[in-house]
Structure prediction request, 464 residues.
Amino acid sequence: MSDPIAAVFDRATAVPDQSTLSADASAAVRAAIGELLPALRERAAKTEQARRIPVESIDELAETGVFRLLQPRRHGGYEAHPAEFYTAVAELAAACGSTGWVAAVLGISPWNLALFDSAAQDEVWGSDPDARICSSYALTGTATAVEGGYRLSGRWGFVSGCDHATWALLGARVMDGDAAVDSCTFLVPATDYTVDDVWQAVGLRGTGSNDIVVEDVFVPAHRMLDSTSVTRCETPGNAVNDGPLYRIPFGCVHTSAITAAIIGMARGGYHAHLDQQRDRIRVALPGDATKDSGFTGNAFREDPATLTRIAEASGELDAAWLLLTHNIGHLHDLAAAGAPITPSERLRLRRDQVRGTERAIYAVDRLFENSGGRALRPDSVIQRCWRDAHAGRAHAANDPERVYRMFGSAELAAAQQNPHDAGTPESAAAVPGPDSGTAAAIPGLAQPNPPQAEAVSGAEARQP
Prediction:
């Protein structure tokens, strides 16, 4: 069965407005990831047991170039289209949910660092273009302004991949006495914080999402990024990184990476279910094994409920992926054209992003429910995909009620101001057509496995 999406969106149109260098680099990264996937599948159980990504996996990921996809060209990165990064994340997460999740978190950080003052970028990448940066944007720390910078203290949880990072991006409130006067992200080297090994979880167990502790550390002013400039897409880093990639809102780029990983995990469960159901025989219920059938039971590949659930799940995953890549592609096109990205466009992306997570969870739930008792065994791939996807769903970026409420309020406000325009193409994005060039091909969906609107702030952006 051919990939229905790849047949429409070929590689030439999947990533619009990119230089030949970026497109070639992205293709090379995807090819290298493809070669690495079998080893990651084989290593998935070991990764869970270790509660962190093995060093060998991190080193191999670095060699593929995935951590450089969103890094600025001026610092040795590929400055690729974000849909290419999401595609790489989804493929990794389908093989090993924890590995894909950490790739998403560590891989998005170079994009965030590109928004900082150029002095901060030079400090990190000047001596090590492969420096890895973990993050926790929850405002669980506090900072006080002092001469030349800030004094920072706090504890941050859910810092995925922190064992493999040399820097951390940490959210904090800037205090003036007892009053918070600003919220910012601070860039801190590993020498200035400690990692507290506390990660014990039922899903994404291999992400090493431990706590980071900072005790009264000085952070120079150039290593601070305030939330207001991020929300406005007018950051110090734009002075040196002026490409469209760095003029897309943080709350859109970051949250979409989270959903891309979850779609990948659900896709891994989809393939595991296909592998299991292909030769599975139903014998558990009275009448399933009959004399006429030679007491062997009925094949699940002929079961109408099984076939329906497979179709249902694949449709949900296709829809989630198309909307995710279409929306980020649309915002990238606007940024490339120098056009403003409006609040309604940010909200539409966030609406479809949280809905994409819901679709992925629904898909993997329907398949897991129909996988039988053997799916509960520790060595079952689908139970691991199911646990990982649900753990990813717990991330604060996936808050559908809040996002839907904001979107609905905005739509009703617009309808009240322009009652005759409600429901027209001006109030909703058009569905992408075959020539839109804004959706990435769904990676491997049809092939079985081989033998913000608002800037995401504080608690919204923390890891799982």
About this structure: Residues 1-18, 424-464 have pLDDT under 50 and may be disordered. The first strand starts at residue 133 and ends at 146. The first helix runs from residue 11 to 14.
